[in-house]
Amino acid sequence: MAFFLETLIGGLMAGMLYSLIALGFVLIFKASGVFNFAQGAMVLFAALAMARFSQWIPGWTGLESKWLVNVLAFCVAVGVMIVLAWLVERLVLGKLVNQEGVTLLMATLGISNFLDGFGQTVFGSDIYKIDVGMPKDPVFMLENVFQGGVLISKEDLYAALVAAALVALLSLFFQKTATGRALRAVADDHQAAQSIGIPLKHIWVIVWSVAGFTAVVAGIIWGSKLGVQFSISLVALKALPVVILGGLTSVPGAIIGGLIIGVGEKLSEVYIGPKFGGGIEIWFAYVLALGFLLFRPQGLFGEKIIDRV
With a threshold of 0.90, does the pTM exceed it? Predict the structure, then answer.
């Protein structure tokens, strides 16, 4: 049972990180109807900004406090992502209003490739380190309940708590604030929202900025765990099955979908993987997403759209 709990808790913590990245997809799709294939590149770009500015700021300012340097680097990285959001709206999406969905999809692919190349040009292509003080040592818990206790990674635990707190804040933002209600109105019907005075371009900048903020947090967490390297952008691909499972238009769906994917891939790898030579964790999420596309394409919490002709 202790081993099962270790696997289950590890899956839940990984699932929260998947949910955090999936939120970026859901937020942008809800507000603009665009499936943002650039989300992975945004996570990478944000992680590069955080890593490089945390190295540059001490040389620029003479600061020696790691905590203060990290706070300043985080603020600068968030500012960079907000400026990026504004540029994306002004230079790309603002020019493509009312275009076909495939046009917007190709635009996000172009943004993704641009960010990959631009990030490498500005910040370099080496592997960089993000050190925000998250402990690396594991800890034993429930030693009085199970013999030997349950082994938990402190780093994964803190990362999952940060991700959960951000997810909860974003959910409250959508439900309780005027801006959040405006975002939901735009997601329901662009033209109706514009007819009652909601500025569509303004909303797009806000939602891309929020997605950029989540990209910074996700980039810091994954960068701290794996180091900042260009393979981080591939981590965002794990969020695709999450949004398919939970539903492209559902914030709660992104959370539940992430937890299901995280737990499912860990349990399948541990208990089923040895019978098939391992490697199930790599493809489990995509097979599960394929099953949902066949039998419930709108996901668990997505809206079922019926077109009558």
Answer: no
